[in-house]
Amino acid sequence: MQITRRRLLSVLSAAGLLAVVPVGPASAAAGAAGRARIVANTVAVFAGTADSNARPETAAKLTAVERTARVGLKAMDDAGEGELFAGLVLGTDEANLNTAYRRLYEIALATRTPGLPPDLYGSTAVQRRVLDGLAWLHEHYYGDQSKGYYGNWFHWEIGISQHVSKTLVLLADAVSAHRPDLLPTYVASMDAYLRNGTGGDVDLDSRFHTGANLADITTNRILQGALLGEPGEARIRKALTDQLTVFATIDPYHLDHQVTDGHYADGSFIQHSSVAYTGSYGKGLLTRVVQTLKILDGTGFAHGEELVPTVYGWVRNGFAPLIFEGWMMEIVKGRAVSRPDSGYTDVAVVVEAVVDLSSLASDATATALKSYVKHVRATSRAPLDPARFVSPLSVVRYADILADASVPPADLNPAARSVAFNAMDKTVHRRPGYAFALARSSDRISKYEYMSGENLMPWFQGDGAYYLYLSGQDQSRAYGVDYYTTVSPYGLAGVTAPVEPRRTVPELYGKPYYDNPDHPLHFTSSSESQNKYVYFPRGTSGYSGGAVLGAYGAAGMVQSSDVAYRDRALLPDDFVVYRAATATKSWFLLDDEIVVLAADVGDDAGRAVTTTVDARTAAVGDRISLTGALRDGRPWTGPGTADLRWLRYANATEGTAVGYVFLDVPEVRVALDEVTRSRRVVRTANSDTAVTRSVLGVTVDGAAGARPARLAYALVPNADEARLRAHRHGPLRVLANSARLQAITHTGLGLTAANAFTQGRHETAGLRVDGPASVIVRREGGRGGAVRVAVSDPTMGRDTVTVLLRGRPLRRATGDPEVRVGKAPGGTRIEVDTHHAYGRSFTVTLGE
Known about the structure:
globular; about 30% helix
């Protein structure tokens, strides 16, 4: 297939990508050599080489490959009549069929892995047994298109094809010698099962062929093309062209194929159209594209070095801010938050990709990636196990990086960093000693993700839920699946929720989805209506975003009901909808404090509401203390309900503490309970394992029928009592807290920050903001020093935002070209062009 410059320009936006795929066909000899190299590279990636596998560092990996293969062979030996593997029932469960193909791949892998015993490595008998198993599965359960494609589309279009394609590559010689018919037979069937494509190929207009899913499908097709001989080259080139679209930065104002899945300019990553997904599908995409770069290395089909800067940008701006001391933050994991694998396991996957990317990079980029690998290993509270890496080659590269004394450990984040992932409604704020992660939602981004019985109680995870990670702590004891298991879904930290019980999707409808195919909205397991109203519903408010000024941040959100409640008149009578409580919230992100303001806290339906200041978990038996002071200054120890000025929660066993300063809050209810629940309450596939945790709940209650309330408080990570007492006369002050305007000032930092939520003029502390906006102003060096200003449009719909700084006129020193500065009556007028900025912060520095 000819790849024209015009075609590439139409699908790629990142600079330097035009030279990735050579234009025009290669010679027959070059094509044959390239296809052979793809096969050889793939075998090396997954099985290793004689040299890599002779290294002592790969011994554990080889042991794991051998053990898995022998378990699979034993299950084949024990299979009964009509079984391929003992106990694995086929014919109605597509996940079991996928498992069968995975097991065949694992056995095939052992036969190509140097260093394993000769009854596995190079065993013709075992290889033929695998190929006979492939033939049997095709004959009985896969080849009949009229009986296939039940259940989850992913297994049919991606999962099974992935295992089959890799198995055929690993056993390419054995296929030719023993069952040459398998290759064309399986390729034809895999094409036929690509039903969300067009003509058995990728369809870039399909919502199923985007992001990580597209990378998986196209990598499968590259491997298939390498095996098909010269006719397969067209498949390879088409797959490469399709896969290149995932490297393009998403421009929400000029969507290619109407696809919103992928990486955004601010580091956000979205999958499933509206789900913040860096920590799950994002790491899958990272893994797949780096593997593909290794598979294509030296083949002549692509110049992968042109793509390395783009992938490096993903790591630096998208992944690194979300990884804290080796832990992947919860806010970007979608339904995967309910899985038993920890955030440390997630990061190990990222580390392997970074290790391999460093081998493809050069000079400073390679050094930065290697330094980051060392940093993650040095700061993680859980040991990183390279035996869980996919590739033995990665294990060796990882060992070489650790042994290289010339590479110092170094984070890709500065020590102090505030990041507004406004394209996916998430915020991360980092300081030495802690990291704060905030999950927002809007009419652009889903409130949560539920699917396939995973994340059964997700209802408030995007309603301002936040996570405060403390340095030095094992985060699996604070968060992860056990946090969602033991903390009430109505009492997640940061959430305002109505006091009203909700039921999970399986409880409501008797199955993992709402089934009503005859309704005009056509509810099936993978229909667009299912996505919109059940799996990942969006909110209905357009205000969600915030500004960043250097290492400081502001974020705001107007809480809303989801689209199902809005569209309840269109939905079937038996479809259950829930109404959200009301709240307008801001988070101001400083050095020692995270300040939270909430206004219009209540419920239009008159229900009682709760607002959770924090929810923290600890191991039972940890030495926990609760101390504080009442508003009148008397000391207080919890738990209980009281009119508190401040509270301190300390875990002496972990050596951690969090302080809470109640700036303007009614009585606070503090609970410390021992909670035991099964992990199955959050995911049907989890083992029925009872988990017990000590759970702190700091909550403000609103009575049914009460007038809307306002709250103002500060989280103070790692605080001692002296610091909390000092806040009584400290530098922090709330300037405004209403549904129109929320603002604070910190005299010690010379900083004022405001979120304006409505149309009209908003005035506070020498600052005037016209219309909805997020603004941060900081005077550096005291009176007469430079004044820095950051402005963002959290609605993402304004063309211009205007701010007036009252006082003596200031002149522009430096700043973004979109910012215009001029004199105005009473001060300095700042006008910011926010047209199509998608929440980006614009900054300017002013002087006398």
